[in-house]
Amino acid sequence: MEKRELTATHRKLLGLLRRSGSLSRSALAAASGLTTAAVSMMTRDMLNVGLLEESDRAQGRRGPPQINLRPAAHAGYVLGVYAEYDLICLILMDYAGRCVAETTLHGDFRVVDSVADTLADAIHTLLSTQPQARERLLAVSLALPARFDGGAMPVWIAPGLAAWRGVDIARQLSDRLGCPVLVENDANCAAIGELHFGSATPDDSFFYLYIGKGIGGALILNGELHRGRQGNAGEIGALRTRAQSRPSFDDLHACLQAAGEPLPATTADANWQALVTSPAAERWIQRAAGELYRLLYTVTALLDPPSLYLGGTLPAPFMAELQAAVMAQTPTPDDDAPLTLPPLRLSTLPTQNSAAFGAAALALHQC
To answer: For the whole prediction, is pTM greater than 0.85?
Structure first.
């Protein structure tokens, strides 16, 4: 096989190895549902082109130890980028799925001279510190608060980035970087990250509720992102117009600011822990929990997913309190046959920048 002639089955095996770290051929066959012979043939092909490498030895119940396989970390690199009106977050991931560099640029990105140049400059700055990745950059994926109409180019981007609308970001950025560039909705990216690198026992189907500057959602069905007819499946934010209160970070920020609370500079700031018990924060959590419960009740009625995930850029202390408050909600008294929400789990990704991490996971899954 040529180095990048990967089928869906090759990618499935790579995904299992990235999640586990390393597996023997027999363990990989058991996890994938393939025969050991098929796994041996496909992994041999990937070993020959340098996508896999042998690692430690696994002692089986009988017979000699088996040699484990793992993705070759230096076979290539991918970059996930998340952009909002006040930040650009970049996460560089190696071929084994490990985050090797991460940075966040803060500024006013609502109006820029060139969207592609702004992003390319940020990417080149990060890659200048990682020369091995600069030479082997396989793909870039950009996560945006965007909606689509069936094509690869967004037809709508959140108001904070309205000046970015109508720009063929993928093509322009690809021309500057010399590699493929994908553009995807931020909630979809976060859900893909959860699917491939989240909890130790992954769910093949779940609904992901994303809370960032706004709110969004994504639907994973049978281990794949379900984008729907136009690419907007799961866009739960469309159920609450901007004339209504929206349980988002911007909404929380406005409520705390109106109450005169001191606001930390970033969502990762540890000072959010002290704020979560303030009266204004508690009022916001209860209101937001009620709004989110009604949205998730609708999701449950329509899709009945096995589980729900809650993630995004909301500060971690607020995310945990919000999860508990949502699960404490009860159906309206006039519903004589209420539905029960499936478990609502917090995202288990190793970073708060779940959209950027998921964007990197999306790019990696394509390589």
So the answer is: yes
